[in-house]
Design goal:
This protein has about 100 residues and is α+β, with helices and mostly antiparallel strands. The chain contains three helices and four strands. The termini are close together.
């Protein structure tokens, strides 16, 4: 399995309604793109203050590296990126394989 972690900083003018719309679109890929077996998301919630301005994050789990690789150029993923990316100031993505 592969964990696909994205840390997001939404632009300051983006409303909570639009943020919610972004996460609905992201979660909506489950069941539509083969190999996505989990999706979790939420806002930054820690007193540590080590988020460096990143405001939200999500973890998407894939059943294999091959499924993750097929997801990256998938047309549904591209549609969702068209919704989410214009709302972002910054994004960091980090993937790792579960041992």
């Amino acid at each position: 399995m592969v964990r696909h972690i994205a840390l997001l900083q939404f632009k300051t003018e983006i409303t909570q309604e639009k943020i919610d719309e972004c996460f609905v679109a992201l979660q909506g890929m489950m069941g539509r793109i083969p190999g996505i077996v989990g999706f979790e998301h939420g806002p930054y919630e820690s007193p540590e203050g080590l988020n460096e301005g990143l405001t939200h994050g999500f973890i998407m789990t894939f059943d294999s590296p091959e499924s993750r690789n097929a997801y990256l150029p998938h047309p549904i993923h591209e549609e969702v990126k068209d919704i989410v990316v214009p709302c972002l100031e910054r994004v960091v993505v980090f993937d790792f394989n579960l041992l």
